[in-house]
Each structure stands twice: as C-alpha cells, then as structure tokens.
Amino acid sequence: MSWAVTSQQVSARSFSRLWKAALVESRARQPQCWCLRVSQLSANPHAFTSRRPVHQDSMKESSISAGKELHTPVMLKEVLHCLGLKPGQVFLDMTFGAGGHTKAILSAVPDVRVYALDRDPVAFHMMRQLSEEHKSQVTPLLGRFSELRDLLSQRGVGPGSLDAVLLDAGCSSMQFDCPERGFSLSKDGPLDMRMDGNRYPDMPNAADVVNALDQQALASILSTYGEERHAKKIASAIVEARSIYPITRTQQLASIVAGAFSASALYARKDLLQRPAHVATKTFQALRIFVNDELNELYAGLQAAETLLKPGGRLCVLTFHSLEDRVAKRFFQGVDQAVRPCHNIREKIRQRRAQELEEKEDEAVAATRWAYLQNRVMTPLMEEVQDNPRGRSAKLRVACKL
Ligand SMILES: C[S@@+](CC[C@H](N)C(=O)[O-])C[C@H]1O[C@@H](n2cnc3c(N)ncnc32)[C@H](O)[C@@H]1O
C-alpha cells in the first residue's frame, strides 16, 4: 500500500520519477529540460528504470564526509527500558545512524544479537566498524526499510525471528550537519538531501525537484510534506527564481523562500522550544521527505517489523513530526493508511473532527494486532530537551506484537 494521502499528492510523487525518466533517456542535464511539465511525459510512465542500487563495494565510502559531531540518541533510557531485551535475545536496529542506541544495548544486554540497518552508506561504514569490535554479535545491513525483509532472509532470518525492533525515524545529526549532504538550512551546500544518493545516483535530488516540477506540484509537496500554509506563495517564488537561474544550493533556496516573505516574517515562526525558526524550515522538511520517500518507507518499515517480530516481541518507534507520528499511530491502530482527499471545507472540518476523536481514542484503543505497552505516548524529559534540542519533538510509541 502506498502513503496515498490525496490523488494530487500521489501524482506529485510520480512527477519526480517521470521527470527523471526524461533525464535518464535524454542524458541531458540542461536547463531547458528542467522546466518540462511532467504531464508531457506521462505517455511513458515506465521509462524510469535506473533504480537499481550501486553495489556497495564499488562505492567510495571514504569520499562521503561524515559530519564531525555524532548523533545524540534520543530517549535512550526510555528506549532501553521499553525494548525489554534479555541476554541472548535478537534485536534489530532499523535506523543505526551513529549507532548510539545499538551501542547502549550492546553494553547493557549480555550476548544480545544485533541486526543493524541503515540506508545511508556513512552509517553503514560505522556499523561495519562496530561489527569488527563485536564480531559475533553485530550484523551490518545496508539498505532501506523496503529492502529489509530480503536483506534478512538472505542471512537466514525469516518471519517471527526477532525479539525487539527499534525504528528511530528521520535523519541523523550526521546528515543534517554535513553541508555537502544538502539537508542544512543554515550551512551552504549542494541542494541534495538524498540519504542514499551514492547508492542510487539516478534518484532525483532536491535540486532536481525544485527545478523540474511545475508550480502546482511543488505547492502540493510543500503543503503535504511540510504542512506549509504558504505553499502556493513559496512555490511561485521558486518558479520565478529558477526562470532566471537554476536553484542548486541550500542557501540559495533558503533566500528564495525568505524573499517571498516580509523581513519581519523571516523568524516569526517559533519551534517547540519557542526559538525562532527560519521561514524555510518547512520547505526543507517537505523536500527531504519527498526526495527520500520517507512516509512510504516508514510504513514499509513498520510492516516489515511486524512480520519479523515474534509474537510478544516489542516494537519501539521514535517519530519527530506529526506526519511520521500519524503513520505510526495508524499503523498500531490497524487503521488504513490511505486518507480520502479533502475536496471542500465541510469535508476538511469532518476530517479534522475525526482526527481529534482518533487522537482522544488513541491511547485507549487496543489495536487488533498490537498492544501498547504504556498508556501514553512518551516524550523526552525537559532535561533531555535542554541537552539535545533536536529531540524536542520526539514521540515514542511502544507496542507488543500479539
Ligand atoms: C534519527 S537517525 C537514527 C539515529 C540512531 N538511532 C543513533 O542513535 O545514532 C535515523 C537514521 O535512519 C536512517 N533511515 C531513514 N530512513 C531509512 C530507511 N527508509 N531505510 C533505512 N534507513 C533509514 C537514516 O539514514 C538515519 O541514519
């Protein structure tokens, strides 16, 4: 099943692939190709074929510069407690990152067997180093959530084999803090944002998206994946700017978005800690989610975890924004992930009411295939947020497979 929020958004997803097909076919990365309306390409929707990963051995991992600061694992104590691992059990870390959670588990639980996954080759490199130190305990896996079942079955790990799984969604600080990766709003770099661009060189990056898609598709991406109220205004500013010069840098995009607002609006938005947030923050979030297909991947990951866990096994999910959290919440509730599109204001109001009701029921509803382990969704303590503001919006859901 796909994370099909509305038909418009589904087409926004396929726009990217269709446009890439034109690039792959023409081999022409030229400005005149960037503004192709994707509708012109729809005659050949299957042309996008170059999604096969580059073999890991052919990659120059050393050429990918990891950020200097490592990632601080979020809600570490709570995660360790909720996973409830016992000596000799089998654990899967679906989002290894810098390995903070896995390392803590290795030191807390004797003889634990760890399968570690990440789509990012930088994280994989770190996993391999850790597996050298813990030879018989850690198995590193490079790939996406959607590839997990195959990766594990190649190693003889089938359905119902795992005691606990952790999915710590989103990006790591190593990704955000490395300007060359193109995720950062504050540091200039190429507008890339792909978590595994080296493995999938033909996968469109954020610059491809902002330079190729038409205004409506861009606005749809910004409003869907960034929940950006000013999506149309920002999309219009992007289209206008790229008609003069292609958008290739993170700071260039941040200035274009800023240019669509008055000076007083630039930092008028506040984050959860009431700190000023740049007006382009939601634009960057939307592009990152779109480029990496994060919500579909998240859903695929949750499904894979369910298959791989033993009955009684535990799944801990850390999310960092409302879109991710909604996917996790609905998954545990067994709710269909596809939401009907909002056609008019009445329907929007109806949906909002249904959502509020769902939120009220959330903690009480016993999912058919899952039992929540705590009554409430857990959030980080204030002291943790002060030490690590990046974790401020974390929500931890833990459930036991029935
Ligand atoms: C928040 S970080 C995890 C940090 C980690 N728990 C730690 O303590 O260092 C999320 C990680 O998940 C990875 N990731 C995101 N989406 C993924 C996917 N679909 N498949 C595999 N890995 C993914 C990212 O590359 C990133 O390294």
Number of helices: 16
Residues in helix, %: 40-55%
At the fourth CATH level, what is the homologous superfamily of the largest domain? Answer: Vaccinia Virus protein VP39
Q: Which percent band covers the strand fraction?
A: 5-15%
Bound compounds, each kind once, are: S-adenosylmethionine
The general outline is: globular
Structure description:
The structure is a single chain. The protein is α/β, with parallel strands linked by helices and 402 residues long. It has two domains: 7-50 and 196-291, Orthogonal Bundle (DNA polymerase, domain 1), CATH 1.10.150; 76-174 and 294-401, Vaccinia Virus protein VP39 (Rossmann fold, 3-Layer(aba) Sandwich). 42% of the residues lie in helices and 12% in strands. Strands 3-2-1-4-7-9-8 form a seven-stranded mixed beta sheet, sandwiched between helices. The protein has a two-stranded antiparallel ribbon with strand order 5-6. The longest helix is centred in the first third of the chain and has 20 residues, at 7-26. The two termini are 22 Å apart. Bound molecules: S-adenosylmethionine. The site of S-adenosylmethionine has 21 residues, from helix 4 and strand 2. It comes from Megalops atlanticus. Keywords: Methyltransferase, Mitochondrion, Phosphoprotein, S-adenosyl-L-methionine, Transferase, Transit peptide. GO terms for molecular function: rRNA (cytosine-N4-)-methyltransferase activity.
